[in-house]
Amino acid sequence: MDNLISFPSAGRSLPSVKRFQKQAANPYVRSSSASVSNSKVLKLHKPLVSKVKNLQSPTVMVLLNGSPSSNELEDSYLTIGSGREVPSLATKISNEIRNENFFNNAELVNSVNHVKKSQLNGYDSKLNLMGLVSTKSPYAELRHMYALIELARRQGLKDSDIKLNLIVDGAGDTPGMAQRVIKRIRDQYPDIEISSLTGRDIAIDDAVNDSKSKAFFRALTVKPSFQADSPQSALDQYFSINKKSEKFMPTFLTSESDATPVSKNDSLVFFNTKLDRKQIAVLFRQMEKENNDSFRFTALGDYGLKNAMNIAYKQKPLLPGFVKVLNDSGKKIKELAQPENPKLFDLLHGGNNKQLTNVTREFVSGSEIIDKTLNSLSQGNNDLTLVNLDTSTPQAKLSVENQLERIKEKVKSLGGKLIVTSVNAGASNGLVPVEISDFSKSGKEQISNNSIKPSEIAGAIIRDFKVTVPEYMEDSRTNNVSSPEIWWTGWRLSKAS
Questions:
Q1: Given this model, what pLDDT does residue 138 score?
Q2: Is the Cβ–Cβ distance between 434 and 457 less than 8 Å?
Q3: Sheet harboring 28-30: ordered strands across?
Q4: Fewer C-beta neighbours within 10 Å, C or N terminus of the chain?
Q5: Residue 386: beta bridge partners?
Q6: What pLDDT digit, counting tens, does each position of 265-303 carry?
Q7: 437 close to 418: Cβ distance less than 8 angstroms
Q8: Sequence-ordered strand ranges (E) for 71-159
Q9: In this structure, is the dihedral angle defined by the CA atoms of residues 437, 352, 204 and 368, taken in order, positive or negative?
Q10: Which DSSP string corresponds to 81-99?
């Protein structure tokens, strides 16, 4: 197809790239294909309108997750869903550290100045850094904590003025990772006190009932649950009887019986970057109000809080993703998600977790998700089915290959389309592979393969359903016929009425 990748509608084939290059200057292009008579004219760059009959055959989009959980994976989902480049908070902060702007961030500098001012007034004030420490978690990044320590040093604080209240992972880490991460931190910063350790399941509980988060808050500010002499002894003792570090109870690492990890004249910076982990941020914000700002709480992101204060990087309002655009046009959509990554489809919605009237979502384990997909297709109630599958291990990849064949056979029997993309395969070069198997023309398979920008996928899917692409999806609306993404021009053709 002359480097052309497309999602062609039934009964219509798209002109080749060469034809566009020859006739780009002409706003009208005649088609010589058998499906369009010479008396009919195709208009260039006119969006497909709603009066065109909707597709009767189903479309299935399979998203292959190359890693079980990572900021790159979440960035890819958000970009694919939004139809434009939308870096996550973690990516934005990493970029800020790289270009040194991070070390001049006003809110973070003020968090350090609060400690210096309190010390001048005679208080033993400390800078507390709190967050999850792991080597491969999307909730927080170690290098962000390292950068905060560097910022404090640049602003004149000594290492003895800094305390770490660390949250250890477990669900996303390999066995023994918590001990290795803590040892690395102690070796790198021997003069910085690790004041407390807590498991992720306690500190940043996902449940609607935030009793665990409240217990964690009380342990840091009122009365610790347990005490130990050192991080290593605390972890060694815990792991002698337990396996999962995420359930590690809040432990204060000192022999002082009347002290707490966080004091009312301290400054605390929460370096988690997940926007859905807001319970603990709410509690510390309330502590700041109750102490008349003698205590200061600063967060890297706003965590979805309204009227949030002391936010280092405020997030711009999110715009609707392609799922909502199709929902609002009346399309029925089924989402089959794996429970290990419950928030990924929110990102595919452009980062919005509001319930949509024409969208149903079901969480299914990996062993059942294919059967659920086939059953959903058999019922024929949905225009678009979205499925995410894990391919993070060789075993998972082999299993998915067999599963995709089952989905393809079902789509073929229904005369539909199967779209497969490796979601975070573009982390290095910015492109992701997309394969389309189209059976909408008399059941005969037409295959398109190419590598494109994730931000360009949304527009293609929207146009395939004869719906206009929103203006804010700029990466899905390119009309530069000389660019490598020339295949998008084909989506802007419609028969003149």
A1: 65
A2: yes
A3: 28-30, 41-43, 494-495
A4: C
A5: 61, 335
A6: 999 999 988 755 577 888 888 899 888 889 999 999 887
A7: yes
A8: 127-133
A9: negative
A10: HHTS----HHHHHHHHHHT
Question: Which residues make beta-bridge pairs with 251?
Answer: 197, 226
Tell which phi-psi region holds residue 74, choosing left (phi > 0), alpha (psi between -120 and 50) or beta: alpha
Question: How are beta strands 432-441 and 417-422 bridged, if at all?
Answer: antiparallel
265 contacts 125 by C-beta, under 8 angstroms: yes
In this structure, the strands spanning 162-168 and 226-227 are unpaired
Question: What would the CATH number be for the domain defined by 52-85+318-475?
Answer: 3.40.720.10
Cβ neighbours of 225 (radius 10 Å)? 16
The token duo for 268 is 């605390």
pLDDT at residue 170 in the model: 60
How far is it between the farthest Cα atoms of the chain?
90
d(CA 441, CA 310): 57
Summarize pLDDT for 167-195 with one digit per residue, the tens. Answer: 887 655 566 777 888 889 989 999 999 88
Buried b (16+ CB within 10 A) or exposed e, 448-460: bebbbbbbbbbbb
> What is 89-299's CATH topology?
3.40.1450
The residues spanned by each domain of the chain are 52-85+318-475, 89-299
| Burial grade of 76 (CB within 10 A; 0-12, 13-18, 19 or more) | buried
Calpha distance 172→185 (Å, rounded): 19
Report d(CA 113, CA 310) in Å as an integer: 13
